[in-house]
Amino acid sequence: xxxxxxxxxKKGTIVDVRSIEEYRGGHVAGSINIPLQEVGARLxxxxxxxxxxxxxxxxxxxxxxxxQMLSQQGLECYNGGSWLEVNYFxxxxx
Length: 94
Description:
This protein has helices at residues 3-8, 20-24, 43-48, 61-72, 83-91; strands at residues 13-16, 32-33, 53-57, 77-82. The protein has a four-stranded parallel beta sheet with strand order 2-1-3-4. The protein is built from five helices and four strands. It has one domain (3-91): Rhodanese-like domain (Oxidized Rhodanese, domain 1), CATH 3.40.250. The relative contact order is 0.25. With 94 residues, the protein is α/β, with parallel strands linked by helices.
């Protein structure tokens, strides 16, 4: 299943790994903010979330790093890229 379909079908959890300040400036409705530098320390929170995890940030770089870290821990997650793109997909939800 591709990321667009996961988001449109409202499956999983959207996690924004930008800074708190960036998140406050705009984010995907219903997303959770866990800054990239906190990902490793908050692994239990990620494990408790509904999978799959869709990770997003400003451009896809930080969410790519977070996706790699969480995948190595056995979590089902995908790099959603820019939060704006994830937001667009969510706006197209069924």
